[in-house]
Specification:
The complex is a heterodimer of chains A (about 725) and B (about 210).
Chain A lengths: L23 H6 L14 E7 L5 E7 L1 H4 L4 E6 L8 E2 L5 E7 L2 H8 L3 E6 L16 E3 L3 E3 L2 H7 L2 E9 L2 E2 L7 E7 L2 E6 L7 H9 L6 E4 L15 H12 L5 E4 L2 H6 L3 E2 L2 E9 L5 E10 L19 E9 L14 H18 L4 H8 L7 H15 L1 H4 L11 E9 L9 E7 L5 E5 L8 H13 L6 E5 L1 E2 L13 H28 L6 E4 L2 E4 L2 E7 H6 L6 E7 L18 E9 L5 E10 L7 H20 L30 E6 L4 H5 L13 H13 L10 H11 L5
Parallel strand pairs in A: 1-14, 12-13, 17-18, 21-22, 29-30
Antiparallel strand pairs in A: 1-5, 2-4, 2-6, 3-5, 7-18, 8-18, 9-16, 10-15, 11-12, 11-14, 13-23, 16-17, 19-28, 20-21, 20-27, 24-25, 25-26, 28-29
Chain B lengths: L16 H8 L1 E2 L3 H4 L1 H9 L4 E2 L4 E7 L2 E7 L5 H8 L18 E4 L2 E4 L12 E3 L12 H8 L9 H14 L5 H7 L10 H11 L10
Parallel strand pairs in B: 3-7
Antiparallel strand pairs in B: 1-2, 3-4, 5-6, 5-7
The chains are: A alpha+beta (about 725), B alpha+beta (about 210).
């Protein structure tokens, strides 16, 4: 059995290099074809009539006028949406229409008459006391002796903090093209789950999974919201069938994309923290609540990272008549980080301690990574010039511009998912790697090529990467939870080593050595350490005769020792923000934002950095701008567009500094760990605490908009205080 | 601007852009619909009514005239994507906010989601597809690649065109000018650091993100 471990650092030709993504030239030139760009021969277009009410009963539906319209090819009442059915959120689809073009489909929607009986709704959960029986309390969790700990605490703070529901706002909307050929279905989706969609389409359509083909080259954003076939995917397949199997293109309009295709749950909490005078944290108590739509919302991991020994935790899931939640980059962690670190920071402020020193004091509560956090905090402080910038809460300098710094730190898992690679080495020397995975723009294609090239001793451009098809290519897991890079790189490494074992057996006689004496380096198969005794890659592969070598490599969810130490899980990471707040306008300006992030062995430093930059910028978005706004009276979203559902622009982010933690050799020895989620966790904590440090008062709810900043200042006593 | 796909809006007060055009036919001289340039045209010629049915339209795209037969309510973006299969420009917000649909019309960057195709007749329309010459990336595109200025890439073609128009007008920008001048485009993955570096690299100034 081959040894699968990563090559020693000194012997790596490609791993760890800064390589531009292989598909970037296609993306910058408009050549990259997203599923939403495809036009199939005879393609029709679908649109859905959506319920305007947050909670309603369907009384009657009349589709006859729409059916008669020229150009309309199919009209169908959605599954379980007929008369008598209950609608649980506004903009849920009720009737689907397929027509020759988008305009005709839209015109047809206006001809459909649906009568509803409006039912009572709840769309806002900010005030738990108004939630009534929509709030479902979970069992209280107690650890240690919180009552005694609070009695003995020398300092206690209490606060209420919150972060609202936000939406994924993928730029490419959810959707797909579906087309039938007899009982065979081809789907061109926008998905994070190429292999998994086969079964998701087959089962509800009652066709064999072997009849389904999934095809996707690029995806325009997912962030956790694109794992499923979706109701509109299945409806589109029905509509296509009704229209004679013709290709049907369905991509959500922006309002539906924002409000029915996934949200991140809110999280609110009343938190009480106890500590000793020297800053040692001793007690924690919270009552939290959250919503992610009709199913409520789960409890975030509170308190975050610092495991305070005595705690009492209560949580209520609030069911609302709003579009349902989906995974959102590090589910529940950004919320937990902000809520916890706001409370910790308020405690540090009450103790009049520099929060940096306060955290160093309490790092023993961070468990096995305490020392890593300490070093990452020190590195971040150095990059931020923290000690020069920090001041006691409230910038006391004159004028209306107040500066402050804040920090947060975080954790995540990130172990590789189950994945299989199929490596094909042709007698002419060409190499292809097949895998039923997807590249979200994170650089998965590039990482696959780098790992295969490193293993086979070839240049990166010698490897052809085939992904985005199922079931044609071997099954690979969905891209979520930072599980992709570990899964796909480990599977590829094993496939490469397995392939070399077979290739060496064919080549060894020509070099008159045992196969175990060979290595693949620099485009050659050579006797270990002896380049003179070698065959070129092409000479070596010619020994295959006429049959290509097709070899598999697998990663399983829990690899054994024999699989080699290729991946790991569990990271830290620290972020620090430096902001200026205009206390007259309430506008927050990002000056500088520092991230220090560990993630084990880094395959491509350039794309790794981009993941961290991206998470930080997304963090600026949800710290300063993003919020789903629902109207209590009508139950409808008030900002179902990108003008009022705000994202940060290029001028809103300040100077970003990313330091990938490669400062100790243990990191590399851990193997590959996923990176997408962890840096998305700390931004609101760092930015929210920087604002408190600047203006001298806590702004308790994100996003930290001018209105909320001014309200917090007003509560404190206005500009003069 | 009003939403346009609700079959049963709670309020009938709003009139959608396309609904309005469809009901009225499109009057090229209407300032409300076609903007200032059409107003100018109105001073020079009698109003010409096109539609509401399909009408012949010629668009000059990347130097090549393309003949189309389209409803006058079709936006330039939808004409490009759905009729001509020129799909670099993307439909994202569809209402002049995000810039994913940016093309260059007569030298100016334009949100093609909010310009009617019939308005673009007789104008020089440049799309991202026209930027690379004989298979070689434009230096700006190469700078995007070098600085990893794209992740999912859905905003990228629009950003590239916005950057192109910006650099044509501001060949030697400061970082502050970049931050202001490119404020009309949004990215969800968070590629602004790479984009800023790509623009500065293209402008041959120091400050590009290390690429070694």
């Amino acid at each position: 059995m081959p040894k699968y471990e990563w090559p020693e650092k000194s012997k790596r030709a490609i791993l760890g290099r800064r390589i531009s993504k292989l598909d970037s030239p296609d993306k910058v030139s408009g050549r990259a074809m997203y599923s939403s760009d495809i036009k199939r021969p005879g393609q029709l277009y679908a649109r859905f009539l959506r319920c305007p009410y947050a909670h309603a009963k369907v009384v009657s539906i009349d589709i006859s006028a729409a059916e008669k319209m020229p150009g309309v090819k199919a009209v169908k009442i959605c599954e379980k949406k007929g008369p008598g059915s209950e609608i649980l959120w506004a903009l849920d689809e009720v009737v689907g229409v397929v027509a020759v073009d988008e305009q005709t489909a839209e015109d047809a929607l206006r001809k459909i008459v649906v009568k509803y009986e409006k039912l009572p709704h709840l769309v806002n959960e900010r005030d738990l006391s108004k939630a009534g029986d929509h709030a479902k309390p979970a069992a209280e969790q107690v650890a240690g002796d919180p009552d005694k700990a609070f009695q003995e605490a020398e300092v206690v703070i209490e606060g209420e903090y919150g972060i609202p529901v936000i939406t994924h706002c993928c730029l490419e909307p959810h959707g797909q093209i579906v087309e039938w050929e007899g009982d065979n279905l081809t789907v061109h989706p926008s998905t994070q789950n190429v292999s998994g969609l086969v079964g998701q389409f087959a089962q509800p359509l009652q066709i064999p999974a072997s009849n389904v083909k999934i095809r996707m080259d690029h995806i325009g954003g997912g962030f956790g919201s694109k794992f499923a076939a979706d109701s509109w995917g299945i409806e589109s397949a029905h509509l296509s069938k009704q229209a004679g199997g013709k290709p049907v293109k369905t991509f959500l309009e922006r309002d539906a994309e924002l409000f029915v295709a996934g949200v991140r749950p809110s999280h609110f909490a009343r938190i009480k923290v106890g500590a000793k005078k020297d800053g040692t944290l001793t007690a924690w108590e919270h009552q939290s609540w959250s919503t992610g739509g009709p199913g409520g919302g789960g409890m975030a991991p509170l308190p975050y990272v610092l495991n305070i020994p005595n705690s009492r935790k209560k949580h209520s899931a609030v069911a609302t008549n709003t579009g349902p939640q989906r995974a959102w980059r590090a589910p529940n962690h950004p919320q937990a980080c902000w809520l916890s670190f706001a409370a910790f920071d308020d405690m540090a402020a009450k103790l009049n301690m520099d929060s940096f020193d306060f955290y160093l004091k309490n790092l023993n509560l961070a468990g096995e990574r305490a020392d890593l956090y300490r070093r990452e905090l020190q590195k971040a402080a150095e990059l931020m010039e923290w000690k020069k910038k920090w001041h006691p809460r409230g910038d006391s300098t004159a004028g209306h511009l107040k500066k402050g710094v804040g920090l947060g730190f975080h954790t995540w898992g990130g172990r590789g998912h189950a994945s299989e690679a199929r490596l094909k080495i042709y007698p002419d020397g060409s190499v292809a790697l097949d895998m039923g995975t997807q590249d979200l723009g994170t650089g998965t294609r590039t990482v696959l090529a780098m790992v295969a090239a490193e293993t086979l001793g070839l240049p990166v451009d010698a490897i052809r990467i085939n992904i985005g098809r199922a079931p044609d290519y071997p099954v690979s897991g969905p891209s979520g939870g930072s599980t992709t890079v570990g899964g796909v790189s480990a599977a590829t490494r094993r496939a490469g080593q397995n392939a070399l074992e077979e290739l060496f057996a064919k080549v060894a006689p020509a070099l008159a050595v045992e196969p175990s004496e060979l290595e693949a380096v620099g485009g050659k198969i050579q006797v270990k350490g002896n380049p003179a005794k070698s065959l070129s890659w092409k000479q070596a592969t010619a020994k295959l005769g006429v049959t290509p070598l097709v070899v598999a490599g697998k990663n399983v969810a829990a690899p054994s020792a024999a699989d080699g130490k290729l991946t790991d899980q569990g990271v830290g990471g620290v972020q620090m923000a430096d902001v200026t707040v205009d206390i007259e306008t309430g506008i927050v300006k990002m000056n500088k934002f520092v991230a220090v992030q560990d993630c084990g062995l880094i395959i491509n430093e350039k794309t790794a950095e981009s993941q961290v930059f991206g998470a930080m910028i997304m963090g600026v978005c949800f710290s300063l701008f993003e919020e789903r706004v629902m109207d209590d009276v009508t139950g409808r979203p008030l900002n179902a567009n990108m003008e009022f559902y705000k994202l940060a622009g290029i001028g809103d982010i300040g100077d970003l500094v990313v330091h990938m933690w490669m400062d100790d050799p243990e990191q590399d020895a851990r193997g590959v760990i996923g990176l997408g989620e962890p840096p998305a966790n700390s931004p609101a904590a760092a930015i929210g605490n920087a604002i408190a440090n600047a203006i001298g008062v806590r702004v308790p709810q994100a996003p930290f908009t001018p209105a909320r900043i001014l309200a917090a200042l007003e509560k404190k006593g206005g500009l003069s205080s | 601007m009003p939403k346009r796909d609700q079959a049963e809006p709670p309020s009938k007060m709003e009139v959608s852009r396309r609904g309005f055009l469809k009901g009225a036919g499109a009057v090229l001289s209407s300032g409300i619909v076609a903007g200032a340039e059409a107003l100018e045209a109105a001073n020079n010629e009698t109003a010409k009514v096109i539609g509401p049915g399909k009408a012949p339209v010629t668009l000059k795209i990347n130097g090549v005239n393309k003949a189309l037969n389209i409803e006058p309510r079709l936006t330039l973006l939808d004409a490009l994507r759905n009729e001509l299969e020129i799909t670099g420009a993307k439909r994202v917000c569809d209402r002049t906010t995000c810039g994913a649909c940016t093309v260059i019309v007569n030298g100016k960057s334009v949100y093609s989601c909010s310009m009617l195709a019939i308005e673009a007749q007789g104008k020089d329309i440049q799309t991202v597809e026209g930027l690379s010459q004989s298979g070689k990336l434009h230096p700006l595109q190469q700078a995007f690649v070098d600085n990893d200025a794209q992740q999912c890439g859905y905003c990228t073609p629009g950003f590239v065109m916005a950057c192109k128009a910006f650099l044509d007008k501001t060949p030697n920008p400061s970082i502050e000018q970049v931050r202001k001048g490119l404020g009309g485009n949004l990215c969800r993955c968070g590629t602004y650091v790479g984009i800023t570096a790509a623009v500065l690299q293209t402008a041959k100034r120091k400050g590009g993100r290390a690429n070694a």
